[in-house]
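Priority: medium. Attachment 1 of 2:
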């Protein structure tokens, strides 16, 4: 059952929480991926195996 909000209740409704949460999660995910990539390339012996048989090796 839907009910209409009163004027006082409408004034209390705030928007933008979804956008803020999405932005924070995106920045957090990008930061985590950046740290993982940095650790791969800084390691002495780096290798990565992707599905499909693709392998990448680098390092000294």
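Attachment 2 of 2:
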């Amino acid at each position: 059952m839907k009910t209409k909000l009163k004027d006082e209740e409408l004034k209390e409704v705030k928007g933008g929480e979804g956008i803020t949460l999405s932005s924070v999660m995106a920045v957090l995910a990008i930061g985590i991926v950046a740290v993982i990539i940095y650790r791969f390339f800084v390691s002495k012996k780096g290798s990565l195996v992707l599905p499909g048989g693709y392998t990448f090796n680098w390092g000294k």
